[in-house]
Design a protein that fits this description.
Alpha-Beta Plaits; 7-stranded antiparallel beta sheet; globular; 3 domains; 6-stranded mixed beta sheet; 21 strands; Elongation Factor Tu (Ef-tu), domain 3; about 35% strand; about 350 residues; 8 helices; Gyrase A, domain 2
Length: about 350
């Protein structure tokens, strides 16, 4: 298994470690519920160094990114960040990702850990015809995420980056605890916060400094377990559960990242046709009206007939109820529509509700 440069820090803190897509990662420290609530009410620190970083450089870097993705990267100023996807010619997902505009000829693609090698090969396979090069720098980077309402206050004394001037989905190069770092106001929790990228050999200095700065403010180290429950409350997609190479960007309720006016991109013709003709299914959020927890792959019944299966589902610690995501026939996606989920040997009632399930107060 691969280990991040912070592996010893997790073990020192007594983390429960698991194998996750080939990485030795902390799933929890004090417990998933405690960690989840710490991020919602104070702050949490995550090691997400298993994520992938692909650097695209060259005179046609922008044109190349535009070809690969449905969002409009030409709108990005230097140091601005964009949520987007790598799309197939069928308008489905190779992956979802963040794109960082580092300068007009340098774009950093931050992809999911499980897909890094696949994504890199996909990017490389589309290089012919463009005056660009792509490098998989994932092994060089460590990535930390500091998330929660107290995140800015914790990070501010440790960095020369002017956090008070940084808007969401912007980034800046600076120092954190004296170490060169790309500081980004982004995250995967639904809270305010920052993702920190460094190629330093010892990111433990940053990890320890943040935990010490936040100690009196209630910061906790956070594992993968709470990362998943936090992102689901905020309806942030997980590749392999909610999106994949068989779901289109429009079906995934992500039409807002599709900019048809920018011109052609991989899958644009299929998505344009689907947009004109209408989608047949769409992802929706639900909660349970009966007792139980709807887990991924549990069967979903509409009108007594199996129609789908749960994509993501859990008990939401902050909301204190069972929630999940499922693709339903579009005519069954109106708010309040009821359906059933098979949990063990019985069917429980569920209903379509607004998403995101949780939205922070700004």
């Amino acid at each position: 298994m691969k280990a991040t440069r912070l592996n010893a820090n997790h073990r020192k803190l007594g983390a429960k470690m698991i194998e996750f897509v080939g990485w030795d990662m902390p799933v929890e420290y004090k417990g998933i519920i405690d960690e989840h609530l710490a991020v919602r009410t104070a702050a949490g620190l995550f090691d997400v160094s298993h994520m992938g970083e692909i650097l695209v450089t060259g005179k046609e870097a922008l044109a190349f990114v535009q070809h690969l993705t449905p969002n409009d990267a030409s709108r990005l100023a230097v140091n601005q960040v964009q949520y987007t996807a790598l799309t197939t010619p069928q308008g489905t997902f190779v992956d979802d990702m963040l794109v960082y505009s580092l300068d007009p000829e340098r774009y950093l693609l931050v992809v999911n850990a499980a897909n890094t090698d696949k994504d890199y090969q996909w990017v490389v396979s589309h290089l012919p015809g463009f005056d660009v090069k792509a490098e998989n720098l994932s092994d060089s980077y460590s990535q930390l995420a500091l998330q929660g309402p107290k995140a800015a206050g914790i990070l501010r004394p440790l960095t020369d980056v002017r956090l008070e001037e940084m808007k969401p989905f912007w980034a800046a190069l600076g120092k954190v605890a004296g170490i060169d770092t790309l500081v980004s106001r982004t995250g995967y929790t639904g809270e305010d916060g920052f993702e920190l990228y460094t190629t330093a050999s010892n990111p433990s200095v940053i990890w320890e400094a943040i935990l010490e700065s936040g100690r009196s403010l209630g910061i906790q180290p956070i594992g993968l377990g709470a990362r998943d429950t936090l992102r689901l409350e905020a309806k942030l997609m997980l590749y392999g559960n909610d999106i994949d190479d068989k779901t289109t960007v429009l079906e995934a309720d992500l039409k807002w990242i599709v900019k048809f006016k920018k011109g052609a991109f991989l899958g644009s013709d299929v998505l344009l046709k689907q947009n004109e003709e209408g989608i047949r299914r769409k992802i929706v959020g639900f909660d349970l009206l009966d007792r139980g927890i709807a887990r991924p792959h549990y069967p979903v019944f509409v009108g007594g007939e199996k129609a789908a299966e749960v994509r993501s589902g859990t008990f939401a610690p902050y909301l204190k109820k069972s929630i999940g995501l499922v693709y339903l026939p579009v005519e069954k996606t109106e708010l309040g529509t009821e359906f059933e989920i098979g949990i063990r040997d019985k069917k429980v009632r569920a209903r379509v509700i607004p998403t995101p399930f949780y939205k922070r107060n700004y």
